[in-house]
Amino acid sequence: MQDFTPLQGLRRNKISGVSFSTSRETFPYDESCTLKVKFGVDGGIRDSFRHEIWMDAHKRNDKYIRITYKLEIKKVYAGLALKSLIKPVKAVKKASIYWTRNPEMVNLFEKKVWALIIDERRTTHIPATEEEARKKLFEFEASFQILGADVGVGKHTLRAQVGASWGKHIFSEKGTVSGNSSSIKITCT
User: Fold this and answer.
1) pLDDT, averaged in runs of 10, over the chain (189 residues)
2) Is the C-alpha dihedral spanning 50, 135, 20, 146 positive or negative?
3) How many Cα atoms sit within 13 Å of 9 on the Cβ side?
4) How much is the pTM?
5) Is 144 within a domain?
6) What is residue 3's predicted lDDT score, i.e. its pLDDT?
7) Distance from C-alpha of 142 to C-alpha of 74, rounded to nearest angstrom
């Protein structure tokens, strides 16, 4: 890998905008409810994912970025998230820096290098703007169906534990961030 060149004035990396919600707060033992988790990575890694850096990365053959997202939903006992409710989820998003032949950009030499985003479902996206590229790469959303039988009868408190990690690039050191959602309460009857 090439030398890491620190960019001045970048913010510290962190998990931001963690949202954890349920479709139903009360549901029967034999029915299901949907849990949704949404969060993003904010800071220097996101700030540095812009066109000027893509140009430099392409020239220095650092054309592939991979971010691994981790998510776990746990039952909270006495204030501590101890028991996993679902199997931990691991999802990967990727960005590929490429030389575009888009006719709208052909005459703009400074815009010939662009980013292609591959989401966790392996769907490719060619974003129209840098901000759209950052949003597609650095924001994660997932939903899960849980049965009342999986949770058990009674009142329960749940919390999502989230995280992201990435490797070293010419514009960023290797990094890992993690965070927790606020707790939600559900009742299974």
Assistant:
1) 52 92 92 94 92 88 95 86 86 92 57 88 90 95 91 91 93 91 92
2) negative
3) 1
4) 0.86
5) yes
6) 52
7) 15
- Rounded Cα distance between 75 and 159, Å, is 7
Distance CA 158, CA 73 (A): 7
Angle CA 180–73–69, to nearest 5: 70
The owner of tokens 């204030």 is 79
Return the pLDDT at 1. Answer: 43
Task: Read off the CATH number of the domain in which 20 is found.
Answer: 2.60.40.10
Neighbours of 133 (CB within 10 A): 22
**3-class DSSP state of 114:** strand
Examine residue 132 and state whether it is found in any structural domain, yes or no: yes
CA proximity to 175, closest of 10, 63, 19: 10
Q: SS3 for 139?
A: strand
* Cα distance between residue 167 and residue 136, in whole Å: 18
CA nearest neighbour of 148 among 182, 120, 108, 188: 188
**Domains in the chain, number:** 1
Tell me the residue range of the domain where 127 lies: 14-188
Identify whether 6 is part of a domain.
no
In the prediction, which pLDDT does 110 show? Answer: 56
What is the rounded CA–CA span in Å between residue 86 and residue 158? 11
**Pairing between strand 184-188 and 26-27?**
parallel
